[in-house]
Amino acid sequence: MGNVTIVVLKVVIALALLGSVAVQALIVPALWLDLAGEELWGRIAFVSIAALGILTMQVFAVSVWMLLTKVRRGSIFSASSFGWVNAIVASFAVAAVLALALAIILAPGSMAPGLVGLICGAALVLGGIALLVVVMKALLRQAIAREDEAQALRTELGEVI
Question: Would you say 51 and 28 are in contact if contact means Cβ atoms under 8 Å apart?
Answer without folding.
Answer: yes
